[in-house]
Amino acid sequence: GQQLNQSPQSMFIQEGEDVSMNCTSSSIFNTWLWYKQDPGEGPVLLIALYKAGELTSNGRLTAQFGITRKDSFLNISASIPSDVGIYFCAGNYGGSQGNLIFGKGTKLSVKP
Amino acid sequence: GAGVSQSPSNKVTEKGKDVELRCDPISGHTALYWYRQSLGQGLEFLIYFQGNSAPDKSGLPSDRFSAERTGGSVSTLTIQRTQQEDSAVYLCASSLVARGNTEAFFGQGTRLTVV
Predict the structure, then answer these.
(1) Is the CB of B25 inside 8 Å of chain A's CB atoms?
(2) Is the pLDDT of residue B41 over 70?
(3) Which of A76, B36, B39, B65 is within CB 3.0–4.6 Å of B60 for a Cys-Cys bond?
């Protein structure tokens, strides 16, 4: 099925460093969502974006809805060990095409 | 309950048997999604229900897979004649879908192992 291009696939960072990951699509989305998944758990919603250019923060997390509506990024500032996990972006076309399309995920590992 | 509930949490079945996976969405949520996640992989869309509209079945991998949603609430995903490649975590999510809001909330998933 259709998927978003999410990068990087994985990253190792030192505690305290900032992290950036992004998603791109060949199609325009009306909604961008960012999720985090811990082992053995379902994905948990972090941030939802609904307007082109929108910049939204949730604690140390910041995400933006790209102006072209074909991309989004997620930044994590001052990473800590509990940030470890897999981060997924998801897009939604809106209207009758309601299903969410997911990226393949970015696996984040933090060195303590 | 407050969140999306899936049952069973784990299921081991023999190849060739049928299985049913259940999802209880958040009360009042009109949209319900099923995804499949193989080990270390992303989320593969299976099927999407929205209100009384015909479901989007475009992600179902074969005719062995089917899903229904009774009364606009509980959903059951059925896999007939299971194969080893069906082994994965099956995730259900629901969302309100009101005024453009499509924030989906996930259950813990059902881990299916076909032996």
Answers:
(1) no
(2) yes
(3) B65
Q: Are B26 and B105 in contact (CB under 8 A)?
A: yes
CA distance A103 to chain B (A): 7
At residue A49, φ and ψ (nearest 5 deg) are -125, 135
Separation in Å, CA of B97 to nearest CA in chain A: 9
- For residue B33, give how far its alpha carbon lies from the nearest alpha carbon of chain A (Å): 7
* Residues written for chain A: 112
| Cβ atoms within 10 Å of B35's Cβ, excluding its own | 26
pLDDT-based confidence at B39, cuts 50/70/90?
A: confident
Of the two residues B102 and A69, the one the predictor is more confident about is: A69
Contact B42 A1 (CB under 8 A): no
Q: Indicate the burial class of A16 (C-beta count within 10 angstroms; 0-12, 13-18, 19 or more).
A: exposed
CB neighbours of A6 closer than 8 A, spacing ≥ 6?
Answer: A21, A22, A23, A88, A89, A103, A104, A105, A106
Strands A31-37 and A44-49: what pairing? antiparallel
Residue B96, chain A, CB below 8 Å: the answer is: no
Task: Name the closest residue on chain B to residue A46, using Cα atoms.
Answer: B103
Res B86: pLDDT: 97
